[in-house]
Amino acid sequence: MTMTTTNDMIAASPVRRRFGGGDLIGLGIILLVALIGYFLFPNNLALLTRIIAVALLVLSLDLVTGYCGVATLGHAALFGAGAYAAGIASAHYGINDPLAMLAFGIVAGAAAGLVCGVVILRAHGLPQLVLSIALIHLFHEFANKASSWTGGSDGLSGIAPTALLGLYEFDLWGRTAYVFGVALLAIVFVLLRLIVRSPFGMLCRGIKEDPIRIRSMGASPKIALTKMYVISGAVAGVGGALNAITTQVVGLDSLSFTMSAESLVMLVLGGTGSLFGALTGTVVFMFFEDVVSAANPFHWLTMVGALLIAVVLFAPRGIYGTVASFVTRRREAK
Amino acid sequence: MQTVLSIAIDALAYGMVLFVISIGLSVTMGLMRVVNLAHGAFAMIGGYIASYAARDLGLAYGFAILLAIFGTIAIAVPIERLLYRRIYGAPELTQVLMTIGITFCIIGIANYVFGPTLKTVPLPSELQGSVDLGFRAIATHRIFAILCGLAVAAGLWYAIEKTAFGVKLRASVDNAAMAAALGVRTEIVYAVSFAVAVGLAAFGGVVGAELLPVEPYYALRYMVTFLVVVSVGGAGSIPGALIACLLLGAIDTTGRYLMPEFGEFFFYLAVIAIICIYPRGLAGRAKG
Question: Rounded to two decimals, what is the model's pTM?
Fold first, then answer.
C-alpha cells in the first residue's frame, strides 16, 4: 500500500502538538458545511443525516484500510452490528433513550470489530480479502435467519427513541436528528484526530509501511491492529446506531456486501489515509448517488464502476489527496 | 443411501463446474498476482452469449459453447490490454478497486442489454434425459459437467507439465524477471494465459448454467465462491483448486440438502475455518 497522502507529510514534520490549528480549521469546515447543508436542503435533512451515518462508517474503514493497510470488503459488518444492537435495545428491551441506544451501538460495534479483527488479521493478501467477504455474508445470513430478533428481510421496526436528553424530540423534519448527527460526527472527528496522531496511531502507520521492522522494534503488529479494529468498530457502531435512531428502522442492507463495497469506493474516491479524504469521498459519492439514482437507477451500478476505474487510473490518491498534494506543490513552488 | 448418493453426484457436478470456472482465476492469480474480482463476470458473459446463440439464434449447443468461449475472449482481451495491464504489480487495494469497478460496469451493461430476468441455455436432447447406472438413474447433464471438469483438469495438467509453453508458464510464475531475462516473452505468456483463463470461465459459465443460473448479479453472487476456491486451494495450484472445489462443493451441497435453511451459513463458516487453519491455502506455497 503506497497510497501516501499529505497526512504523512504533516505527520513527518516536527509538529508536536496533538491537536493543531489545522485541525481546528478542519473542524470549523465540517461545522460550516453542516450549517450550509442545513440551510440549502431544509427539506432533505434525512439524506444529510444518512450521509453523516455513512461518513462515520467510511471514517472507521479509513482507520483500518487507510492507516493500517488492511484491505477489507466486509466493513459494513461493524456498522450493521451497531445498528442492530441499538435497534434491538429499543424494539425488544424498551431502552429508548437515544444516548443509551448509542452506547449499545458502540459496544456492539466494538465487539464486532474485535471478532472481525481477530479473524481477518489471521491472513494476508487474497485470503484476507476472502475472509472479510465471508464474514460479511456470515453476518448477513445470521441476521436474516435470526428473524425473531432482527425482523429478517422485513427489517427491524418498532424503534421509538425518546427525546434527546429529555428535551429535544425527534421531529418530523429531522432537525434534531441532523443536529445530533453533526454533533456526533464532530466529537468522533476530534477523537480520531487525537488517536491517529498519538504514538499508537504512528505505530499503526508504521505497521502499514513495514510490519517486520515494527516487530523487530519490539511491538506486536497484531495486537496494535486488533486494537485499531476495536476502535474502528466503535466508530462504525456510532454510525450504525445513529442510522437506527434517526431512521427508526434497521434493514438487512446495513449488513450487506454492497454496503461494504460502496464504503470502500467512497473512501478511495476521497483518498485513503486521511480523515478529510474519507469525509470528502462520502459527501461526493452520496450526493452523486442521490442525483443519478433519482434520474436513472438502472445505470447507477455502471456509473459507480466507471467512476472506480477512473479514480484508479487518473486519481489514485483520491479527490482530497490529489487536491492536497497540488496545494502543497504550489506552496513549495513559491 | 439414496440421499447420500444424490448428494455425492450433485456435489461432484457442482464442484467440477466450480473448478472449470475458477481454475483460470487461480492460474492468472498465481501468474500475474492480480486479484481479479471480475472473473465471475466473464463467466456470466459466456453464459449470456451461449443463451443468446442457442435460444435466439437457434444454434446447436456445441456451437453455442464455442461462440461463448471466443466471444468472451474477444471481449476480455481489449479489457486486459487497456485496464489490467496498468494494475500488474500494483497494490492489492488498487487491483480490488479496478476489478470490482469492471464487475459493476459489466453487471450494469448486462442488466441493460439482456434485462434483469434469468436466462437459460437450452440443453440438447442428448443431455436432457438421465442415464441408468443399473442401481440408480443420474441426470445426463450432471455427468456431462463432471466429464467436462475432468477433461479440463487433465488438459491443463498436460499443457502445464508436458508442453514447451507449460515450461515457460511455470518459469514465469516462479520468477517473471528471471524468465524474461532468459528470453521468455512474458507478456505473450501473460496474454495467452489470460485468454485461456477467460475462455475457461466462459466454458464453465455455459456448462454450469443449470447449477449457477445466469442473471445480471451472477458476477457478484458467485464472485465470493470463486475467490474462496482460489484462496482455499492456493493460487496457481491445479490439484489444490481441484481439492478445494470438491470440498467446497461437498460442504455447500450437503448443507443445502440437509439444512436448506442454514446452507449458506455453514458454507461461509467452513470457509472461515479453513482459511484460518491454512492461511496460504491447502496447496499454497510458502511465498504465495
Answer: 0.83
